[in-house]
Write a sequence for this structure.
């Protein structure tokens, strides 16, 4: 009996030693990739680019898009700081600790959360990753961890699946722009894409979320899988040497060095570039740019330099042939088209849910439709945040199976 007990104790100790080793190894792997910035001094904040490096590599180690982790850190702690001006750990009114504002997590060492920057980041990343693994949160059909939009509900859960974070207001059905995850995704658009790219929107309905708005009980999710018709976005941190990318904006600067202060040459939107190596962080350690720089060259190899990850996307293979549908070409991601039967308005939806007119659309014109919004009696999304209202003045059609088959060739 004694020998059995000793074996159990030995095996238990062995498992604990192994677990401890694995956690330490995981941390040292990602943190060591930022060793060029030097050691972090006690009670002092790392430089911004040092923190950029730490957050990026911790996210990559955990298979989370760095854009997501950085935005969570920005929402939780705007300056990415662990310590205040007096060298004391930053602790919020609700007891959130450090750069990742770890709250109500007794399983983590509370003192290390306060004074160890590496541990604080590692803990925040682990918690966020655990939220992704939850089976009671919705996901996007057919996508994985590399898709930024697929972290929407995991980010929500990082703060809490409470009524205050409901994607829609229960009373009106309008989008809740004050929800935690909406703020985080706004940070992604502002800091990782420099506000030139809009992340894909979920086709939410009020019936998707069951909760009492006057209660602190968690939301019950009634729709566990979504299909997005908007373009989705894979993390820009996985490009490999030889990958072809497209510029998403006009007059993007090709830099001579990985810094906005270096010599630049302007390139046009949709220019094809070839990734020529691993990404780099900004040369200026005080730079507050959250994006990274990729060494690139043009297809003819006449131009080489560095391009911001904020302005590039993976170049997709074009369909073998153009598929015409009436007056317009059928495009990937298109769900239908609208034909204008009599003059009507192109509209945009304001943050308060109201519609404003962009311009008048003329009879006979055709427009590709990429999404559908059930508000205001029905709105056809035609791209660029613009809509055509569902009325008798327009005709909506969906593409035939034969045309979709041609497009997929």
């Amino acid at each position: 009996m004694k020998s059995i007990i000793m074996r159990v104790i030995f095996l238990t100790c062995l498992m604990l030693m192994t677990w401890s080793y694995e956690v330490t190894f995981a941390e040292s792997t990602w943190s060591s990739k930022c060793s060029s910035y030097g050691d972090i001094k006690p009670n002092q904040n790392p430089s911004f680019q040092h923190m950029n490096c730490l957050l990026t590599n911790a996210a990559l180690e955990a298979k989370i898009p760095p854009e997501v982790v950085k935005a969570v850190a920005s929402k939780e702690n705007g300056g990415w700081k662990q310590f205040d001006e007096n060298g004391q750990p930053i602790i919020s009114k609700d007891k959130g600790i450090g750069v990742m504002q770890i709250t109500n997590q007794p399983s983590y060492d509370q003192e290390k959360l306060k004074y160890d920057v590496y541990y604080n980041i590692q803990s925040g990343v682990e918690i966020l990753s655990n939220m992704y693994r939850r089976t009671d949160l919705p996901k996007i059909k057919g996508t994985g961890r590399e898709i930024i939009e697929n972290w929407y509900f995991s980010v929500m859960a990082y703060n809490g699946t409470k009524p205050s974070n409901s994607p829609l207001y229960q009373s009106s059905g309008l989008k809740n722009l004050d929800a935690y995850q909406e703020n985080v995704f706004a940070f992604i658009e502002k800091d990782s894409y420099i506000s030139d790219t809009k992340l894909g929107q979920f086709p939410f309905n009020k019936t998707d979320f069951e909760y009492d708005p006057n209660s602190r009980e968690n939301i019950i999710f009634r729709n566990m899988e979504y299909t997005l018709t908007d373009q989705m976005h894979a993390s820009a941190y996985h490009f490999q040497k030889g990958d072809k990318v497209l510029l998403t904006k006009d007059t993007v600067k090709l830099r001579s060095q990985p810094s906005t202060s270096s010599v630049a040459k302007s390139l046009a939107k949709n220019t094809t570039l070839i990734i020529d190596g691993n990404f780099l962080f900004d040369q200026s350690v005080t730079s507050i740019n959250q994006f990274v720089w990729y060494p690139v060259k043009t297809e003819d190899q006449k131009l080489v330099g560095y391009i911001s990850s904020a302005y590039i996307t993976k170049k997709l293979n074009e369909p073998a042939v153009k598929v015409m549908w009436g007056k317009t070409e059928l495009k990937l991601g298109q769900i239908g088209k609208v034909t204008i039967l009599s003059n009507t308005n192109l509209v945009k939806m304001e943050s308060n849910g109201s519609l404003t007119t962009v311009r008048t659309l003329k009879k006979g014109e055709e427009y590709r439709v990429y999404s559908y919004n059930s508000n205001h009696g029905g709105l056809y999304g035609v791209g660029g945040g613009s809509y055509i209202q569902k009325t008798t003045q327009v005709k909506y059609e969906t593409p035939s199976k034969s045309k979709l088959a041609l497009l997929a060739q």
